Amino acid sequence: MTNFDFDVFISHASEDKAGFVTSLSNELRKHGLKVWFDKFTLKVGDSLHRSIEKGLARSRYGVVVFSPKFLTKNWPQAELDGLFAREMDGHKVILPIWHNISSARMKDALPMLADKVALRSSDGIEAVARSLVEVIRPELLELDNKKASAFEAADTFMAEARRKHPGYDFAIQSGSFSAPKLTGAPSAIANAKQRIQISVSDPAIIGTSPGGRIEFFGEGARKAIEFVRTGKPQKWESGEFRLLDWNVPLMPTHVEGSTLEVGIDNNLLNIPPKYMRVEVRSRPPIVFPIMEMKPVRLGTDEVEAILSDKETPLSISLVFSVGSNSLSNASREIDFTLSWETTGKKISECKNLIEAIDALRRGNVLRLIDIRLDKPIFESKARVASRTDPFAGTLRRTVLLASQIEKEFSVSLRMPEVVSEEDGESLLHLDCLLNDHPYQQVNDTQLRLTKADGEVGAGQLAFIRGELSATYTDVPSNYPGYFPLFGQQIATRNWVRVVELVPKEPCACLKEFSESPIGTQFSIEITAKGPVFLRWRDDSILRNIEVGSLAQLQL
């Protein structure tokens, strides 16, 4: 039996994608079909036969959307003759759809196909998709019917639960759930794929608060103490706990074994955030002006809060003891950890991040200031366990150079997920232009020189003697006026490649040159005194002593 990657591919004209094909593809996927259509969009000049052959090699069925635009594509009669020869074992594998096209138009254009039974897009996306599913994978429609029956049964169950347990409300949620969550409200009973959500709809009716008791044993007791003390999520395995005397509807009154998980208290989500200004070092401070601080766990002895901001790459986790007058004592000991994500963040913010981490590695102060009170709530020197640079060298260089580019050309950049090859080329050129870094090395080459008279001839002689160097400038012929960088175009003035040249052996042809008549041609080996540099184009650079043609020199 042939294994296929997809249930169906859709061959169509590119002009029909937005109006019909994309919606059809989405509807087929809703029914559970594996659909591939982007790779088989026909454009002018494409071969219909090759496209369909290629698609059928990976798909069980092929859908061909015939439309006025489709008929304008290039597909010879020979291809049409073999188009439907792919019928396998007597059943159809190519399913036609007529889209915005009449029977008369089809007969005129494709008389051999006009009589073949086809679906029509005018019947509607849902009807066309259902007809295709009936042919391609009819069992999926049976599954839809079973799902509908299951939902009806679930509704009946929920209505009966509400009748038997007044004051409570019930709902079935589908998805992937790890384990029953027994903290916070509402409570829930769950398995891996569904859970019943139970909430209190009328406290006056139920009278007593819903709940029960949990007994812990051995290692389970240690976990329970740790959860109460720190608020850190815990998981108890079979034998470490049991539930007793639960009065929640559908909850067993006595359970021993299974698994119990306690996570973050949902009530923490209702605590309003504090807004902080974060400063690193003192003179001058590196500032993150507004960061939101929210608690993520709360215990009797320990609290953890996270400071973050969507525009700031830095996140700060603070863990502090709640036995020291909450957050009011800025001088007490607090543990903190730093994490960051630079992708998509402003380059200026990424530069701030690097400078802040570097300062903290050197033992500078981290200070949190409550914006509303304009009062420090925390101040501490960093405790760095390792001197290893946490930033990859390429990231550090990219951020610092991009920050310099922002200032030089008054642009705003964001850090991409991946620095493309094109971005790398632009960074190299701009680094050389802004920071006078060498661009490349030049190999030894030949200089064709025609002896001249007067001042030019004197300059040539001085060059051969090694008393004078020649500056060669190369103007790029294909520079568009900008460098593409991180999805933007950094417009700049024109620039040139510059290298200083001298004879490789200054005296090799000195005697012959001196004794030769004007107009004699020489070939002189030359070498570069240093690497090629990039310079902003300036007429003073281009006015050099003429030493002959340097057309053979390639930079």
TrEMBL record:
<dbReference type="InterPro" id="IPR000157">
    <property type="entry name" value="TIR_dom"/>
</dbReference>
<dbReference type="InterPro" id="IPR035897">
    <property type="entry name" value="Toll_tir_struct_dom_sf"/>
</dbReference>
<feature type="domain" description="TIR">
    <location>
        <begin position="4"/>
        <end position="136"/>
    </location>
</feature>
<keyword id="KW-0675">Receptor</keyword>
<dbReference type="GO" id="GO:0007165">
    <property type="term" value="P:signal transduction"/>
</dbReference>
<protein>
    <submittedName>
        <fullName>Toll/interleukin-1 receptor domain-containing protein</fullName>
    </submittedName>
</protein>
<dbReference type="Pfam" id="PF13676">
    <property type="entry name" value="TIR_2"/>
</dbReference>
